[in-house]
Amino acid sequence: MIKRKKWSKLAVRRNIAGWVAVSPVIAGILIFTGLPFVQSFYHAFTEFNGIEKAKWIGLDNFKYLLDYDLFKYSLGITIKYTVITVPVNMVLGFLFALLFNVKVKGIAALRVVAYLPCIIPGVISAIVWKDLFSPSANGRFNQFLTALGFEPFPFLSSPDTALFSMYLMGLWGLGGGMLLWISNMNAIPDSLYEAASIDGAGRLRKMFNITIPMLTPVILYQLVMGMVGSLQAFGSSFLMTKGGPMNSTYFMGLMIYETAFTYMDMGLACAMSLVMFVMIGCLTAIVFKTSSWVFYGEEQ
To answer: Is 17 helix (H, G, I), strand (E, B) or coil?
Structure first.
């Protein structure tokens, strides 16, 4: 017969104190995340304008989305944006990390400068980039181009270049990923590089056989977080283009927002959100299911 372990009074008090300490966080998650999620899930199957009583309509919202061309177009734009920005940001962040991961005087200050864009509020960033991307000759980028003898570039004013401009703006936060790469590069044991040097390995071989394999947990983390963040892109499109021109930057996040708060179709917006939630969940599950390439260290 297995005897149950008896807790001392001190252990009980500490356990209660721990739960009391984390209770505000738990309450916040349940109230501000859990409850809205449950409500959103329910309203996805209703006709609801946010004011009148919700009317249960079953799968009608989802059936409507299957034939809603603008929804499918917006979903495609969002996926395209994610497929391009996530790997580009990861690769450029890694290259910047290699560049800044050197022991020279003043490198710490340069790292701080590279990270500064990450702490600037999104609204301010959008205003700055909107000014930089101004299609007129007074736009900061176009001033530079005209000074070199080129014609002004349309940037956000043309459907052919607006999404490309969003890609460029996506590079604004490279500093955050760069510091993450650097911190994990510095955690790699020097003994591995010393052993590789003794075997005659060059810099490229060390990078591909030591650095990158040891950084696979970071690659997995940045892949998942970048994918989730890009699929939920909203602020840049809302503040800079309103989804235009000609819906070329009409991301799913903006479409859900406008459906809910401009057209007051909360039910349909919740259905869109549920589709996005399921898609993100499935993609994340696939990434983790196929993450056998991630190296977490020697097995004990």
So the answer is: helix
Tokens 């993100």, located at residue: 280
Query: CA 207, CA 212: separation in Å to the nearest integer?
Result: 6
Of the CA atoms within 13 Å of residue 66, those in its CB half-sphere come to 5
pLDDT at 300: 39
Regarding the domain with residue range 68-293, which homologous superfamily does it belong to in the CATH classification? MetI-like (1.10.3720.10)
The two structure tokens encoding residue 260? 């809910």
CA distance 250 to 258: 10
Write out the two tokens for 123.
Answer: 């609204």
CA 79 vs CA 4, 162, 239: distances in Å: 53, 16, 20
Per-residue pLDDT, 137: 64
Query: Environment class of residue 291 by beta-carbon count within 10 Å: exposed (0-12), middle (13-18) or buried (19+)?
Result: middle
For residues 72-85, average pLDDT: 94
In the predicted structure, residue 136 carries a pLDDT above the cut 80:
no
- Which DSSP string do the residues of 139-175 spell out, in sequence order? SHHHHHHHHTTPPPP-GGGSTTTHHHHHHHHHGGGHH
